């Protein structure tokens, strides 16, 4: 029996796990090996083993820490705004309003536009539309070009990312909401529970698996953000929006410091994995088993 | 019953995997295409192996595919033209090289980039097409010709003839006066734009190129033996930048698109741009424009150089290298090839056997400067890898965003940025 | 009274959605403009609604071919992702041992690795497979699908994992007692109950496969193999974009996915697991 179970386990999981190992895990391990090597990324050029030198170099890299700080700030803001908006959307479009089907499609549309072009389109909004609005309404304290102000450019990035990801999380929240039995909510309603009570006492606890998933997806998406970063601000002005993935990319492909770039990736991976896995563990504990 | 189910499960899994593998197939680029059996076509040209070509200029991608079709019509040989968005070319090239999946012919920028990929170059020194390259225009590594120049490009002050007389902009004093008077008329005297090369990469070339030995100067800068802040050409450059910040629209607000739009509609008198920018004016009414030198430190020449060249991948199979040579010969010697270079690619030829006629006004200016020897080189090709985008641009952005920063401080910041990148 | 307030809420919801869509408006209007018009005002309606940029974009992109390529790659990727991930996730949920936990953690934690740091080693691994196992992983659709499945596995397993946990185990146990093999239990009992999440996974995976640029750009070189995203490179120069054609091309690329989404979302229906709860 035990043997048979193991066989089934293998049959069900190994095909995917083998593919996954080939494509993700092995390259990742090779990447770890590269982090101890000094190399410019050109296969024919020499690779020199330098031990921990690459890691030591990172600790003197002020710009790396700035970008790590930017990334953390960005991620926290994005985490809140994406999920708040995504959850609101999902509640709105499942509330049985006549336009909810249409809204469901429209809210999701931004997700269909790839990150690069998305950044370019928003550039028009921040430069042209904001200038226009500022001129028309006189509110030029709000409507100016956020992208060239080091204090605001990061928020611009948060807005664009939220606009893109909210629809994505909405889909997952909808799937979660659909799993909550109507009877529970109806019963609570009959018992006179207010909307807020029904949300916080029934819906949200039962939605915990969706929260876990959405938080994690937003986290990993925000930590890895690159395309929008590149096309919207390209890290500027004055490195104020250079995110972590861009910093690595520049190290590897801009300066040709392959080993240092890999070392940065490993270091950041360790930190981020620690943070996010803690988050997963915490939210998982709150999940209610049905 | 149980057994069959299990067998079925196993089978289904295998089918999944097998179909994954099976729907690959046929197009193994490196090993196929051995159709070089030496049969001759009517034109007497040899039947060559199929090769691939990869290049960074999106603007000529369509014309290049068209050229490949014509090449096939005329010679029967095939070229697969690969595509890539402009800013991801080098990354893709590097990744494909790492996978032994590289193209047969590829384009490479002069300077640091050419240096980086040098282990891949086939030595072209003895090939026919190399003989017609104009003096000093070949791409050379360690004394060997490894690349044919794609063409010549140049940049300087592109000006609107109805707003600017070149005689009025010849040194710092006259430049300042011109900028002030333009500002008085509500016109942007000189517009830079936020993209790294258009903000600082190109304009910084002039103080470098007017040094007695630019490459030696860069070398000393890398070693920390000289400082821009202590060099008088750079001190004057900083003064130019101060005037630009004071009198023109903040370059950080300007994109290449708006820069050229403002120029085309007369809101801007001059832009610091190259002959490539002529393409941006196509949708606007006709303009009378020209290109003149950026007069920093007495400079009276345009910055002209070869942006890069075609190289052949020495990792390709011998028959592919042979086919690549045949193609380059055809490109630079046949009427179709020469015609395409001038009229479709709109390149200024760097070959002695190709006549340049019907050039647009900016290319014409560059071409004439080249003929008369009135040019300074692109020293920025020899800057440390990645420095323009990663270090010099942020420092310059800071200068333009902070009206209180002096030119002196700006130069110090540039020196610091340089030291960081050159380590 | 209730009816009017509902109607008002409906209208407000629609308005909110429209505001949310304003960037898409910018994309659309600029697919009709010349460079001069766009420069003049990027927000205004175009002077004329001529489809010429759509036509030229389609021609340049070789639209039908790349549409076919993208559809092929996307459909196969999603089918494999759905089948393999749901099976894997189910086993991982129902098996309570160290190996199972370790595998789950491996799937999840690698979601945090930026692709940029994997791409060079990935290409080397693929080259190794091609050279030593003679399986053409590079410059083939099959290879791309294989890599897609690997990269999308994490998210799909994660999604399935979260939802399978909320399915009661009782039904499965009953079926096992009736003599069903694991395979039968999964496909007859479990998978049908996963319909909502399967549709969700499929939607999200269709989009990420369809929109991917970086991975196909590294693995596909031949012109004939290009996906729809790869074919838009013609419009993206180093410093400028051919706006009208790029926007037109982009509009063309998202239409198939919008249709797919509009159809698929109908199947996200309520109460799949409900009947099973009691």
TrEMBL record, chain A:
Transmembrane segments: 7-37, 74-94, 106-125, 152-175, 206-226, 265-282
Pfam families: BPD_transp_1
Residue ranges occupied by any ABC transmembrane type-1 domain in the UniProt entry: 68-279
Location in or out of the cell: Cell membrane
Domain of life: Bacteria
Keywords for the protein's UniProt record, in alphabetical order: Cell membrane, Membrane, Transmembrane, Transmembrane helix, Transport
InterPro entries, alphabetized: ABC_transporter_permease, MetI-like, MetI-like_sf
Bilayer topology annotation: Multi-pass membrane protein
Record-stated family: Belongs to the binding-protein-dependent transport system permease family.
PANTHER family: ABC TRANSPORTER PERMEASE PROTEIN (PTHR30193), INNER MEMBRANE ABC TRANSPORTER PERMEASE PROTEIN YCJO (PTHR30193:SF37)
Protein name stated in the entry: ABC transporter permease
Species in which this protein is naturally found: Paenibacillus aceti
UniProtKB/TrEMBL annotation, chain B:
Keyword Transport found: yes
Entries under InterPro entries matching the protein: SBP
Coiled-coil ranges (or none): none
Signal peptide start-end: 1-24
UniProt keywords, alphabetically: Signal, Transport
Keyword Transport: yes
Pfam families xref list: SBP_bac_8 (PF13416)
Stored SUPFAM superfamilies: Periplasmic binding protein-like II
Family to which this protein belongs: Belongs to the bacterial solute-binding protein 1 family.
Protein name: ABC transporter substrate-binding protein
TrEMBL record, chain C:
Domain of life: Bacteria
Entry keyword Cell membrane: yes
Bilayer topology: Multi-pass membrane protein
Pfam families, per the entry: BPD_transp_1
Family matches, as PROSITE patterns: ABC_TM1
InterPro entries in UniProt: MetI-like, MetI-like_sf
Compartments reported by the entry: Cell membrane
Domain ABC transmembrane type-1, first and last residues per copy: 67-264
Listed SUPFAM superfamilies: MetI-like (SSF161098)
Keywords recorded for this protein, A-Z: Cell membrane, Membrane, Transmembrane, Transmembrane helix, Transport
UniProt keyword Transmembrane helix present: yes
Transmembrane segments: 7-28, 71-93, 102-123, 143-164, 185-207, 241-263
Gene3D superfamilies (alphabetical): MetI-like
PANTHER family in the record: ABC TRANSPORTER PERMEASE PROTEIN MG189-RELATED, ABC TRANSPORTER PERMEASE PROTEIN MG189-RELATED-RELATED
Similarity annotation: Belongs to the binding-protein-dependent transport system permease family.
Protein name: Sugar ABC transporter permease
Originating organism: Paenibacillus aceti
């Amino acid at each position: 029996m035990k043997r048979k179970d193991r066989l089934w386990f293998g049959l069900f999981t190994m095909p995917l796990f083998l593919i996954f190992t080939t494509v993700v895990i092995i390259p990742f391990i090779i990447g770890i090996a590269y982090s101890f090597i000094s190399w410019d990324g050109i296969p024919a050029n020499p690779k020199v083993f330098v031990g921990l030198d690459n890691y030591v170099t990172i600790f003197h890299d002020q710009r790396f820490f700035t970008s790590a700080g930017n990334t953390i700030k960005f991620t926290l803001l994005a985490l809140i705004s994406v999920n708040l908006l995504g959850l609101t959307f999902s509640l709105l479009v499942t509330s049985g309003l006549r336009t909810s089907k249409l809204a469901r499609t429209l809210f999701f549309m931004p997700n269909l536009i790839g990150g690069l072009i998305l950044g370019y389109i928003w550039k028009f909004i921040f430069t042209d539309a904001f200038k226009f609005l500022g001129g028309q309404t006189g509110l030029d304290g709000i409507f100016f070009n956020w992208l060239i102000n080091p204090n605001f450019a990061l928020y611009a990035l948060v807005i664009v990312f939220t606009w893109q990801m909210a629809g994505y999380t909405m889909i997952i929240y909808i799937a979660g909401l659909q799993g909550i039995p109507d009877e529970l909510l109806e019963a609570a309603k009959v018992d006179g529970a207010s909307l807020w009570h029904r949300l916080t006492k029934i819906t949200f606890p039962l939605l915990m698996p969706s929260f876990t998933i959405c938080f994690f997806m937003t986290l990993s998406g925000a930590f890895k953000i690159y395309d929008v970063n590149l096309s919207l601000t390209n890290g500027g002005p004055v490195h104020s929006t250079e995110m972590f993935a861009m910093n690595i990319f520049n190290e590897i492909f801009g300066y040709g410091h392959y080993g240092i770039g890999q070392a940065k990736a490993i270091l950041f991976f360790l930190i981020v994995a620690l943070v996010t896995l803690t988050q997963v563990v915490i939210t998982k504990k709150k999940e209610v088993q049905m | 019953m149980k057994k069959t189910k299990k067998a079925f499960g196993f089978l289904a899994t295998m089918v999944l995997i097998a179909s994954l593998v099976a729907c690959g197939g046929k197009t193994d680029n490196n090993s196929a295409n051995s159709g070089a059996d030496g049969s001759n076509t009517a034109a007497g040209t040899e039947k060559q192996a199929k090769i691939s070509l990869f290049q960074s200029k999106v603007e000529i991608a369509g014309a290049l595919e068209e050229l490949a079709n014509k090449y096939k019509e005329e010679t029967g040989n095939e070229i697969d033209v690969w595509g890539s968005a402009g800013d991801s070319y080098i990354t893709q090239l590097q990744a494909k090289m790492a996978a032994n999946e590289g193209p047969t012919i590829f384009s490479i920028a002069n300077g640091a980039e050419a240096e980086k990929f040098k282990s891949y170059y086939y030595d072209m020194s003895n090939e026919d097409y190399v003989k017609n390259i104009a003096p000093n225009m070949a791409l050379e590594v360690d004394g060997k010709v490894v690349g044919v120049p794609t063409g010549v490009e140049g940049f300087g002050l592109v000006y609107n003839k109805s707003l600017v007389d070149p005689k009025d902009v010849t040194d710092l004093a006259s430049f300042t006066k011109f900028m002030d008077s333009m500002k008085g008329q509500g016109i942007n005297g000189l517009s830079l734009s936020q993209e790294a090369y258009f903000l600082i990469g190109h304009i910084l070339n002039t103080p470098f190129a007017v040094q007695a030995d630019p490459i030696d100067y860069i070398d000393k800068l890398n070693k920390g033996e000289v400082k821009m802040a202590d060099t008088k050409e750079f001190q004057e450059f900083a003064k130019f930048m101060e005037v630009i910040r004071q009198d023109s629209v903040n370059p950080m607000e300007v994109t290449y698109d708006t820069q050229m739009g403002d120029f085309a509609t007369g809101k801007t008198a001059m832009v610091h741009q190259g002959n490539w920018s002529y393409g941006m004016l196509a949708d606007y009414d006709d303009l009378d424009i020209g290109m003149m030198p950026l007069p920093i430190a007495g400079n009276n020449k345009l910055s002209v150089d070869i942006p890069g060249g075609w190289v052949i991948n020495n990792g390709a199979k011998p028959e592919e290298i042979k086919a690549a040579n045949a193609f380059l010969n055809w490109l630079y010697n046949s009427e179709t090839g020469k015609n395409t270079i001038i009229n479709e690619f709109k390149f200024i030829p760097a070959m002695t056997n190709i006549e340049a006629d019907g050039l647009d006004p900016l290319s014409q200016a560059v071409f004439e400067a080249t003929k008369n020897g009135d040019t300074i080189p692109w020293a920025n090709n020899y800057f440390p890898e990645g420095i323009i985008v990663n270090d010099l641009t942020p420092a310059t952005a800071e200068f333009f965003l902070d009206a209180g920063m002096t030119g002196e401080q700006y130069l110090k910041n540039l020196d610091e940025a340089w030291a960081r990148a050159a380590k | 009274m209730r009816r009017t307030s509902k109607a008002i809420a409906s209208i407000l919801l629609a308005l909110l959605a429209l505001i949310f869509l304003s960037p898409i408006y910018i994309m659309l209007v600029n697919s009709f403009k010349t460079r001069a018009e766009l420069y003049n005002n990027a927000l205004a309606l175009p002077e004329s609604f001529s489809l010429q940029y759509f036509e030229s974009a389609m021609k340049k992109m070789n639209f039908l071919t790349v549409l076919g390529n993208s559809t092929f790659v996307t459909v196969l990727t999603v089918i494999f992702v759905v089948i393999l991930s749901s099976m894997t996730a189910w086993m991982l949920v129902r098996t309570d041992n160290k190996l199972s936990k370790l595998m789950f953690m491996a799937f999840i934690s690698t979601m945090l690795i930026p692709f940029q740091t994997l791409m060079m080693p990935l290409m080397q691994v693929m080259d190794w497979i091609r050279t030593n196992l003679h399986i053409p992983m590079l410059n083939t659709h099959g290879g791309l699908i294989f890599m897609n499945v690997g990269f999308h596995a994490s998210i799909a397993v994660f999604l399935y994992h979260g939802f399978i946990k909320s399915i009661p185990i009782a039904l499965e146990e009953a079926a096992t007692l009736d003599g069903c093999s694991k395979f039968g239990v999964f496909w007859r009992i479990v998978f049908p109950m996963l319909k909502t999440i399967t549709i969700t996974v499929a939607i999200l995976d269709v989009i990420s496969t369809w929109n991917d640029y970086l991975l196909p750009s590294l693995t596909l070189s031949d012109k004939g193999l290009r996906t729809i995203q790869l074919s838009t490179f013609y419009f993206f120069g180093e410093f400028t974009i051919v706006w009208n054609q790029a926007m037109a091309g982009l509009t063309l690329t998202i239409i198939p996915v919008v249709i797919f989404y509009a159809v698929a979302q109908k199947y996200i229906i309520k109460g799949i697991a409900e009947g099973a709860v009691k």
